[in-house]
Amino acid sequence: MENAKIKELLNKVKSGELSVEQAVSKLQTSPFEDLGFAKVDHHREIRQGVPEVIFGQGKTCEQILEIAGSMLKKDINNILVTRLSSEKATVLNEKLDFKYYETAEIGVISPVFIPPTDSIVAMVSGGTSDMRVAEEAAVTAEVLGNQVVRIYDVGVAGLHRLLSQMDVLVRAKVIIAVAGMEGALASVVGGLVSCPVIAVPTSIGYGANLGGISALLSMLNSCSSGVSVVNIDNGFGAGYIANMINKL
Fold first, then answer.
1. Do the domain assignments include residue 146?
2. What is the pLDDT of residues 81-134, one digit of tens each?
3. Cβ distance 186 to 180 under 8 Å?
4. Do the domain assignments include residue 227?
5. Which domain holds residue 196?
């Protein structure tokens, strides 16, 4: 919303023409900028606490740059670009204030440090092969200002590895459990702790894993209370939800 319109809105509140609640509603629902190929939501941070996130997969570098430019004109920082290839990241790095996390395939445009929370998000993964998805979740949560503790390669094939990390698990305010194969890790973690567990099935596994469907169904059918599930390979979604829970 342009400054003149914001001033007009505030003057209407001051004069009693609009209530505070009505003004907040107007601020929450506008504006967006129509770029033709994209409608950029400039007030998402007001509504949700986090700016619009750019999904990099399927977009050209030129499209990402134009969307980012629209957001930067509104003084928006920490613009996340998910599913971003290293080739596209190289181009963005030449043109923007930019940081790239290669394993997570996440870029951050106009990065600004946010002091991390005192409470922790525990990032638990079944195997090293799940690391791309786990890092997508971990980096998302970190960029949004959370203290993340990584516990990798502690799958159920060697349960003692997970149990050796109980001191961290019981201190966590929320846990992200990432696993492929049969996806049993989330159920085991959920049965050990009192905090919410966000389960992330990955597409890692042999044929009957069905590209992550087996892990997804296992997690959806978990008998451990307090386990919720996001989509296959959706590390970003898990990190975003963990941020919301951790900052309640």
1. yes
2. 999 999 999 999 999 989 999 999 999 999 989 899 999 999 999 999 999 999
3. no
4. yes
5. 120-246
What is the DSSP pairing of strand 120-125 with strand 147-151?
parallel
How do 79-82 and 106-109 pair as beta strands?
A: antiparallel
Taking residues 54-82, report their average pLDDT.
92
- Are both 28 and 133 inside the same structural domain? no
Measured N-to-C along each axis, helices 3-15 and 20-29 cross at an angle, to the nearest 10 degrees, of 160
Provide the mean pLDDT of the chain: 91
Question: Within this chain, do residues 236 and 216 fall inside the same structural domain, yes or no?
Answer: yes
Tokens representing 9 are 């809105």
81 and 155 co-located in one domain: no
Coil, helix or strand at residue 121: strand
Which pLDDT value is given to residue 3? 54
If asked whether residues 164 and 228 sit together in one domain, one would say yes
Counted domains in the chain: 2
Report helix, strand and coil shares of the chain as percent, to nearest 5. Answer: 45, 20, 35
Measured CA to CA, the distance from residue 58 to residue 61 in angstroms comes to: 10
Domain termination residue (choose one: 56, 83, 109): 109
Rounded Cα–Cα distance for residues 201 and 214 (Å)? 9
Cα Rg of the chain, angstroms: 20
